[in-house]
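The pair is listed for reference:
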Amino acid sequence: MKYVLVTGGVVSGLGKGVTASSIGVVLKACGLRVTSIKIDPYLNTDAGTMSPFEHGEVFVLDDGGEVDLDLGNYERFLDVTLTRDNNITTGKIYQSVLEKERKGDYLGKTVQVVPHITDAIKDWIESVSLTPVDGKDGPADVCVIELGGTVGDIESMPFIEALRQLYFSVGQDNFCLIHVSLIPVLGVVGEQKTKPTQHSVRELRALGLTPHFLACRSAQPLLENTKQKLSQFCHVPVANILNIHDVPNIWHIPLLLRNQNAHDAVLKQLDLLSVAKPVDLREWTRRAETFDNLTKTVRIAMVGKYVGLTDSYLSVVKALLHACIACSYKPSIDWIAASDLEDDSAQSAPEAYATAWETLRGAACVLVPGGFGDRGVKGMILAARYARENNVPYLGICLGMQISVIEFARSALHMEKANSEEFDPQTPELVVIFMPEGSKTHMGSTMRLGSRRTLFQTPDCITSKLYSNSKYVDERHRHRYEVNPEVVGTLEEAGLRFVGMDESGKRMEILELPGHPFYVGVQFHPEYKSRPGRPSAPFLGLIMAATGQLEAYVQMQQNGSI
């Protein structure tokens, strides 16, 4: 197995995940099979209980793993299906070591960070790297490992030591270290500063790892004298100093690396030049250029709880991007804090209230994504009502679907107290209930998680046609609450259609509103499986409805011409 380790220095949030993904894309374009591992040094077992405000979205895998959002980047860029074990955390490592200690597996030895924790890290990496993730048999050729955080962080020290030992054990022809760093420009001087990177590399070398490559993040392309200076003081050849400057869209990053011959340099370091094919990034080039040349935009109202940090909805944003490009539009997302739409805001924050409603009315479609807790729920219900009553295309995901059920029950069935057990457990009109297998005491990994099958109840529905007339679809879930099966009949009599259910027929998965241009709710999270060039069906339907293309598409599906 060949390993490519990506570390970060100076500051966090430099784009190590995109860099690691892009390295993988370039190697894959050379005919190699690539897998990836993300190391998160925090003590949490997984990302499931972490606030989106603090850590961005929680990405869900097929096997139900709740992981860091960078694994979403890996899946989208490399078109692979990862497992929960591809995300290593300090919590997982310590948990596995302590379980062994309790069983007596260490035979009375004193259990220490070195060697026991470091050995567990190495064993985990070597085991997971051999697991195929691309649907083919046998292990991949290269494993790209991203070490989260910044070099020098106390919590990442055991991982750095384990990776140093791994480098020593596999040999220099099987290990490549790429250090991502920042080259800032001070406004007054206007000079590209290399000192932060010098200090970061010195820190890394003091820990026993010397980078083979520097991936330098900057606003503008690096000057030649900046590269010379970095080479001289960081002990990295000039040819191995890669510049990842700001680009119009992230699909340019693999092209940027190819243009600097990063693939040849990495292949040479890993002794893979003899087995690699000439790099082929024609599809990526076409994708990046297509996006750059789009002129028409479509306005999408995103009504959510965590709009203060766009990374909270990263996969939703990417899914909208994929769908918009398929429709030859650029997405223009209008972020609306759901609480700003509520009547209370009209009194407490009249300007925010007026702006939110003006933005909502100016959008071509409305999307209510997933979330937890009751903050902003009233605003989401108002947004769903606005979309339903004004024939504005609407997509509700997870909580967004439950919101549409609550709104419909209140408006169409005059169930004024209709609510979810999550928001009002005492209401006599429960239309959304807690799932029987859930836990009310433990939050981590107690939801309905991972890939589950949804069966279409009728081929005569928009969603089935968007999924290419499939009889079923496998999508990823992450929820504790579901539509109350006891009220389904009443809701359907009033006009709502539940066109997708689980295999038991008791869980409502997809709803539609006949007579509306596009009013769809899905209990699952279709954004997690959206890919560049293969947009998620519900998102594609929303954008086609917003841009006037859905009717023709559905007609073509009926005629069998797609």
